[in-house]
Design brief:
Layout (H helix, E strand, L loop, with lengths): L4 E3 L7 E9 L10 H10 L2 E6 L20 E4 L2 E5 L4 E7 L3 E9 L5 H14 L2 E12 L9 E5 L5 H5 L4 E2 L8 H11 L4 E12 L9 E3 L4 H15 L6 H24 L5 H11 L10 H18 L1
Parallel strand pairs: 2-7, 2-8, 8-11, 9-10
Antiparallel strand pairs: 1-3, 3-6, 4-5, 6-7, 9-11, 11-12
Length: 309
C-alpha cells in the first residue's frame, strides 16, 4: 500500500490507538466528521500521514451537475482555491499512550483498496485498537443523554463493549464506512469498535406554520457521550469540560427554539409532543468512576448469574 498511504512520521508511544471518522453518509450531528476535527483542534494534533485520493472519487455522475464535483473558486479569473478530497492522519499523545485521529472523505469507489490502505496504515503504526465514529438521526429527546449503538470486529470484545452501556446493533442494510471496515478488520484479526450516536431530529415539514425539519447539526451532547466512552475504553484523557459546556448551551438553544415554535403555532402542541418523547425514552447515563464503576458492573453481572442459577 506504499503507493496509496503516505507516512510522514512514526510515533513511538508504548500504546497507540486510532480514532477514525469521515465526511460521510452516517454523519448525523457531525459525529463522524465534526468530532474528529474537534479532537484534532483541542489537542493540537499534528499531521503524520494521509491516504492519497487517487482512484477513490468520481468527478461527475451523468445527469447531475454538482453532486460530486470538487468545488473551485475564482476571483477575477484566477483560481484562488480548489477543494480536494482529504484523508489525513493526525497524532496526539505522549511516550506512554498516543492516539492517531483520522479524518477523511468517504470514497465513491474501490472501497476494498481504500479499506486496506487504512488498515495497513494502522498496522504500520502498531495501532492496538481502532475506534470508528458515526451518527444516525432519530426522534428522541434533545435534553437527554444520547443512545449509542455499537459494533465490534472480534467476538472476544463483546463483554468489554457491552459494559459501555451501548446497544449492540442488529442492523441489516446498506453498509456504512464503519460497518464495512469493522468486518474487514475482523477478517484481519484487528480490534475495531464503532460508536453510532442517535441524534435528535423532528419533522414538521408538513406543517404550514413551521414548514421545516429541526435537526441537530453539531450534536455536542452526542460527542460528549462518545468521548466519555473513548476515554474509558482506551484510558485516554480527552478533556470533557468544554464539551459539557457546549452540550448545555445546545440544550438551552434547542429549548428556546421549541418555545418559539410553541408560541408560533400553539395548536400543534410541539412541547406536548416532545414531552411524550421524553416519557417514552429511557435515559442510560454513562458516568464511569474508576474502580467504583468496575465494582458496580461486576456486581450487576454477578447478580445476573445468580438470577439465572
Amino acid at each position: 500500500m506504499a503507493d496509496v498511504v503516505e507516512i510522514i512520521e512514526r510515533p513511538e508511544a508504548k500504546e497507540i490507538y486510532m480514532i477514525v471518522g469521515w465526511r460521510q453518509w452516517a454523519d448525523a450531528g457531525s459525529t463522524s466528521s465534526g468530532l474528529p476535527q474537534y479532537l484534532i483542534d483541542q489537542t493540537d494534533a499534528r499531521r503524520i500521514g494521509r491516504i492519497r485520493p487517487d482512484g477513490f472519487y468520481l468527478f461527475q455522475i451523468p445527469g447531475t451537475h454538482g453532486l460530486v464535483r470538487p468545488i473551485v473558486k475564482f476571483e477575477e479569473g484566477y483560481p484562488v482555491s480548489l477543494e480536494n478530497r482529504r484523508n489525513e492522519f493526525f497524532y496526539t499523545g505522549d511516550d506512554e499512550r498516543g492516539v492517531i485521529i483520522f479524518l477523511g472523505d468517504e470514497p465513491h469507489m474501490d472501497i476494498e483498496r481504500y479499506t486496506e490502505a487504512l488498515l495497513s496504515a494502522a498496522r504500520e503504526w502498531g495501532v492496538k485498537r481502532i475506534i470508528g465514529l458515526g451518527g444516525v438521526y432519530g426522534e428522541l429527546p434533545y435534553d437527554k443523554e444520547r443512545m449509542i449503538s455499537s459494533i465490534y470486529s472480534l467476538p472476544s470484545m463483546e463483554e468489554e463493549v457491552r459494559a459501555l452501556l451501548v446497544n449492540l446493533s442488529d442492523y441489516h442494510g446498506g453498509a456504512s464506512m464503519g460497518s464495512y471496515i469493522c468486518r474487514k478488520a475482523g477478517d484481519a484479526g484487528m480490534e475495531y469498535v464503532s460508536f453510532y450516536a442517535f441524534v435528535p431530529t423532528y419533522d414538521f415539514s408538513g406543517t404550514a406554520q413551521i414548514g421545516n425539519t429541526i435537526r441537530v447539526e453539531d450534536d455536542y451532547t452526542a460527542w460528549l457521550g462518545v468521548v466519555k466512552r473513548i476515554n474509558y475504553m482506551l484510558g485516554t484523557d480527552f478533556d470533557l469540560d468544554d464539551l459539557e459546556e457546549k452540550s448545555q448551551e445546545l440544550i438551552e438553544a434547542l429549548d428556546d427554539k421549541v418555545s418559539q415554535l410553541d408560541n408560533l403555532a400553539p395548536q400543534l402542541g410541539v412541547r406536548d409532543y416532545l414531552e411524550r418523547l421524553n416519557e417514552a425514552f429511557t435515559e442510560v447515563p454513562f458516568e464511569p468512576l474508576g474502580d467504583v464503576w468496575e465494582d458496580e458492573l461486576r456486581r450487576l453481572f454477578d447478580g445476573d448469574d445468580e438470577d439465572e442459577g
